[in-house]
Design goal:
four-stranded antiparallel sheet, Lipocalin
Length: 378
């Protein structure tokens, strides 16, 4: 089995959390499937590289609202770095005093991260303007939108004023004895704040935190709390008002956020986020298979097993290709149409655990050693 994320266990207040192993296996780990020769069917040029320091924990690449920057957070160094997506040039770099456990969120001006000390730190143009203690763990990058910072913690959803850090509202999370120690889902869709709570997507009023609707992607089942974990994990794929997400090791599904209703849900055994385009949703399973579903119906279009047991990252839709990284630092560009390999890119040999991002026309990936690469399809 591939390595699975750990879970967060709590009794009473989730602020007093105990970290436990979510899953384990006593059997021998399967050997990664050998890679065939690189077909080189798609020309891609590496245009820049940058270094943000070795990563020992979570790291997120985030493109700012205007698409002109890529922000990278190095977990071990406790630094937040802003890079130009066009050139890889460092724009600013700021130490936040402790390892980053959730980040980065940015609207292009304000940038927020959460540290291992449970501090929410907000920067303006790379300069710290405030920090606030959260009281509970967060592994989900904050959302910075509408002059506010929204945070998903182990026990609640919070909204804070972007300039002062003043708490505006707090909405408790209910009925979750366990929570995964990995990124969840929080995003703005029109005038609604959409968050993943257990196996549900919920729509909240961003001004008050009042719930407006909820739609279940997965329902908890199993003999114990660990088996019943169905947190929504990682990135979602949004097209207009339709948001598609993954419930941990159970299902993927799409929700109409205008109506607050589930469109479809399908069984799936993965634990990373989703990618997608106007017609398709892409995901990677726990065993390394990459799957494409029809966005409108949920019908499976293809399943590619060339990367079995290679610790594959969440996918990124990239024109006619789907980009994923693996545990050996390879970036695989697969055909959007059938999942066949178009080309393979090489980095520094360390794992690519972070979902690749697209900044303008530049594909950006980050490795565990903290190297950031910019590639451009020709």
């Amino acid at each position: 089995m591939v390595n699975l994320p750990r879970a967060l266990s709590a009794a009473g207040l989730l602020a007093c959390a105990l970290l436990v192993a979510a899953c384990s296996s006593s059997g021998k780990k399967p050997e990664p499937k050998p890679l065939p020769p690189n077909p080189n069917l798609l020309a891609v040029q590496r245009i820049w590289t940058a270094q943000v320091g070795e990563i020992s924990g979570p790291m997120t690449l985030r493109v700012t609202a205007d698409g002109s920057q890529v922000l990278a957070v190095g977990g071990k160094t406790g630094e937040v770095t802003a890079l130009s997506a066009a050139s890889g040039q460092q724009l600013w770099r700021t130490a936040v005093g402790a390892r980053v456990t959730a980040g980065v969120g940015s609207d292009g001006q304000l940038t927020s991260v959460v540290t291992e000390n449970n501090d929410l730190v907000t920067l303006d143009g790379g300069k710290e303007i405030w920090r606030q203690p959260l009281g509970a763990r967060s592994y989900t990058p904050p959302l910075v939108a509408g002059a506010r910072v929204f945070v998903l913690t182990a026990d609640r959803v919070l909204a804070l004023d972007g300039q002062t850090g003043r708490r505006l509202w707090s909405q408790p999370r209910v009925g979750e004895p366990l929570m995964l120690r990995q990124s969840g889902s929080i995003l703005a869709v029109g005038n609604v704040l959409v968050v993943g709570v257990a196996g549900r997507l919920m729509g909240l009023n961003p001004l008050t935190g009042e719930p407006q609707w909820q739609a279940a992607v997965a329902v908890s089942r199993g003999a114990n709390d660990i088996e019943r974990l169905v947190d929504l994990v990682g990135s979602v794929s949004r097209q207009g008002s339709v948001v598609c997400g993954r419930a941990y090791q159970s299902r993927v599904g799409c929700v109409d956020t205008n109506r607050g209703s589930l469109i479809w849900a399908k069984n799936a055994q993965g634990y990373t986020g989703l990618g997608g385009d106007a017609d398709r949703v892409f995901g990677t399973e726990g065993d390394g298979r990459v799957i494409a579903w029809q966005r409108a119906s949920g019908d499976q279009l293809w399943s590619a097993d060339a990367l079995r047991y290679r610790n594959v990252s969440a996918p990124l839709a990239l024109g006619r290709a789907v980009a994923v990284g693996d545990g050996n630092g390879n970036v695989h560009l697969l055909s959007r149409e059938d999942g066949s390999t178009l080309t393979r890119l090489i980095t520094d040999g360390s794992a690519i655990e972070v979902q690749p991002v697209l900044a303008g026309n530049t594909l950006v990936v980050a490795t565990q050693k903290g190297a950031i690469y910019g590639f451009r399809p020709e």
